[in-house]
Amino acid sequence: MNIINFYVNNKMSSLKSLKDYIYDIDYNFYYNDGKNLYPITRKEYKKQTGERDYIVDKLRNSRYPYQNNDYFFLKLNNDFYTPIDWKIYNLVKFFWDNGFKGYSSEQGHKFNPSNIAFNFKYNKNLILYIESIFDKKNIEIYDYVFADLEITKIHQIRSELNLKILNEKKKIIYIRKEILKEKTLINIQFRPEIIDWIYHFLNLKIPDHSKAHTGGRVISKRWMEKFKKNIVED
After folding, report:
1. pTM value?
2. If DSSP codes are grouped into helix, strand and coil, which group holds residue 136?
3. Which residues lie closer than 8 Å to 37 by C-beta, 6 or more apart?
4. Distance between CA 55 and CA 34 in Å, rounded?
5. Residues 50, 163: one domain?
6. Range of the domain at 48
7. 54 and 97 share a domain?
8. How many independent structural domains does the chain possess?
9. Cα separation of 147 and 52, whole Å?
10. Torsion angle defined by CA atoms of residues 131, 117, 4 and 90, in that order, rounded to the nearest 10 degrees
């Protein structure tokens, strides 16, 4: 297992890695002291976190409730939202405002580059648009056909490219085009340490972290099953 996969598989391996107040998809609320989970009421959760019912429900019913990083909401359609990592929110919004709708994103960390994913079917001019902004010489494009590969092999290839992007530092933007069985994706990737530079280059405002919602509040059923033995009932 390479270092990236080790980090991904272990970043939530203990209660110490979770927030102090959390809830699951079934609206069971808990206080986490790092060793055990103590059931609390929704009222107590709101009191301790300052979150209103509106935010609790909005995240729980969003496209991706298990948002780990602090975030802002992006409206997809009607009253359906997706959380976007706070630091790249205005970058994602920039692409939306120019007709390219990214549906998932990650601001990155020391083991993963920043990533904004698009469905190629609805964004056929995206690569040309990226090239017009950053110049072809600053962009590297990778084409992968994943339709017949096992998921473990796909993860391995992605991890190897992620490591290359983080270490190579030759290009500004890396574009990973993936042909899967059910769709074709375009992933725009870049090193997290140049996010501020990209904002400056595009003349965009860096989001105010202090106004973002706290991530890591909703825990998946998979992780609740893992920590079920740590629940302390009255």
Report:
1. 0.86
2. helix
3. 15, 22, 30, 31, 227, 230, 231, 232
4. 24
5. no
6. 14-66+216-234
7. no
8. 2
9. 43
10. 80
Tell me if 32 sits within 8 A of 65, measured CB to CB. no
Token pair in block for residue 36:
């055990």
Q: Strand pairing of 139-145 and 173-179?
A: parallel
**Cα–Cα distance measured from residue 106 to residue 85, given in angstroms and rounded to the nearest whole number:** 6
How many Å apart are CA 231 and CA 32, to the nearest integer? 9
Distance CA 82, CA 36 (A): 30
Report d(CA 36, CA 16) in Å as an integer: 10
Tell whether 153 and 233 lie within a shared domain.
no
Residue 177 bridge partners (DSSP): 143, 186
**C-alpha–C-alpha distance, residues 52 and 66, integer Å:** 18
For 85-141, how does the pLDDT look when each residue is reduced to its tens digit (9 = 90+)?
999 999 999 999 998 988 788 999 888 999 999 887 767 789 999 999 999 899 999
Rg over alpha carbons for the chain, rounded to the nearest Å, is 19
**With 0-12 CB in 10 A as exposed, 13-18 as middle and 19+ as buried, what is 182?**
exposed
